[in-house]
Amino acid sequence: MPNRRGVVILVTAAVLGPLRAQQGDHPHPHDAEHLHHHADAGRVWTIDDVLALGRNQRVSAERRVVGGRSGDGDLAFSVQVTADRLPKEVFAANPHDGKRKRSILECAHGGFAYDYRPGKGEVYWHLQGAGILRIQRDRSKIVLLPTDPAMRRLNLHNATFFVHKGQARIAWPAERGARVFLTDVDGKVVHVVPKPTVKPYSDGAAYAPTDTAYLDGKLWVTDGYASKYVMSYDLDRAAWTGQIFGGPTRKIEPGKFGTNHGITILENLIYVSGRQFARIHTYKPDTTFTGMFPLPDGSRPCDFEFFVLRGKLYGVAASLDKPTRSKDRGASIYIVDMKTLKVVSTIKPRDELGLDKFVHLHNVFPTVEDGLVTLFCQAWNGGDFAVLRQVAKADAKAAAPDPQRKR
After folding, report:
1. Rounded CA gap, 120 and 324, in Å?
2. Alpha carbons 213 and 267: distance in angstroms, whole number
3. How far apart are the first and last CA of the chain?
4. Considering the domain boundaries, does residue 3 fall inside one?
5. Structural domain for 104, as ranges
6. Long-range CB contacts (< 8 A, 24+ apart) of 140-147?
7. How many domains, in total, are found in the chain?
8. Which residues are paired to 40 by β-bridges?
């Protein structure tokens, strides 16, 4: 079904089989949930179809703005934890910020790693100038771990937890350091992934890694801030595999990137956040491009993560900016129904939850705990931190305005 441009896109948002976080050796806690298969997995979409979908990203659930809550339908959230719970060290001046002299928290520019192993549940984060932080399983305490000085000096742009050959690891890409640190869960460096050796990097192309994802012994790395490619590294051989895809573009183009910022792997499908043009691209592990779908125009999604709730698969996007022509004061978090690829809930941390520093979102990581979704959120410029918790149905009903009440 080619369109007038002669381009055909197969949108493959289907996810088959049980959900696993980063495809580690251990199953994700959400494995017990049964996933829905994508009803349109075999449908062929043209460029015009995809653009039309982007123009019609309407929220399907009823939206009620209630004090202290934000979101749509059952996917509404309130603030559970704020930066006040962080260690005092993160409020000191960042010694690596040059003349700007911002605090360590104000320089926040990273993301979260979730230990999905049974009985675990800790979340890890890094702040330049302070080091690795561990958010305890019950969220009551956040501690600063001993961190290698080389890691403390650099901004570590995101974080990925995975299990390789029975060993728990966290990958930390340093965009200005042009390398990826691998640590254990206590913060000890166990390996450093160097600059790629595959072309165009072997010919001198710039390299600034922004995110990683793990699959079957390989670490996939996005070079979002330099040459715009994605490539894989074999952990057993400690060598780049030669697999590479993507590359730069100045327009919406299937499989090419303005900024390939984030990467997530779910059931052998690689999802890459094309931040510049608000598109999520998908690839097979053999580097075959399989499709893309849009998020609200101008939103610039930094990352795309997944959770399963009551048998349904959802995607979560942290957006850097508010949508085009929006009158909001800050960017939003979008929850996407992966069966329809429609935004079904929009959470506004600044405009509706009172988190004034959340002008730009850099990373949001979802977990499901006790049947409710928790969102770990990090703002950029100025940096901030918050944990949002899904409002339970009973609480939401009690807080909702009575439509029969006389005014």
Report:
1. 40
2. 12
3. 55
4. no
5. 8-399
6. 141/85, 142/85, 142/86, 142/87, 143/87, 144/87, 144/89, 144/90, 145/186, 145/187, 146/186, 146/187, 147/187
7. 1
8. none
For residue 111, the one-letter residue type is G
| pLDDT greater at residue 401 or residue 111 | 111
The amino acid at residue 344 is V
Average pLDDT of the segment spanning 300-320: 98
Strands of the sheet with 70-72, listed across from one edge: 70-72, 75-82, 384-390, 372-380, 360-369
Instruction: Examine residue 220 and state whether it is found in any structural domain, yes or no.
Output: yes
pLDDT of residue 63: 55
Q: What's the pLDDT at 395?
A: 63
Confidence band of 396 (pLDDT split at 50, 70, 90): low
* Maximum C-alpha span of the chain: 72
d(CA 402, CA 99): 54
Where residue 94 falls among pLDDT bands split at 50, 70, 90?
very high
**What sign has the CA pseudo-torsion 17, 22, 112, 278?**
negative
Residue 265 lies in a domain: yes
* CA–CA gap between residue 53 and residue 62 (Å, rounded): 20
Mean pLDDT, the chain, whole residue set: 86
CATH code assigned at 317: 2.120.10.30
Q: Cα dist. 332→243, 289, 366 in Å?
A: 34, 28, 15
Give domain status of residue 27, yes or no: yes
Q: Mind listing the pLDDT tens digit for each residue in 323-349?
A: 999 999 999 999 999 999 999 999 999
pTM of the model: 0.85
Are 68 and 79 contacting, i.e. CB atoms less than 8 angstroms apart? yes
φ, ψ at 147 (rounded to 5°): -130, 135
For the segment 49-64, the average pLDDT, to the nearest whole number, is 47
Banded model confidence at residue 64, pLDDT cuts 50, 70, 90: low
Structure confidence at residue 161 (pLDDT): 98
**Interatomic CA distance for residues 114 and 124, integer angstroms:** 6
The residue-averaged pLDDT of 20-26 equals 38
CB neighbour burial string for 380-399, b if at least 16 within 10 angstroms, e if fewer: bebbbbbbbbbbeeeebeee
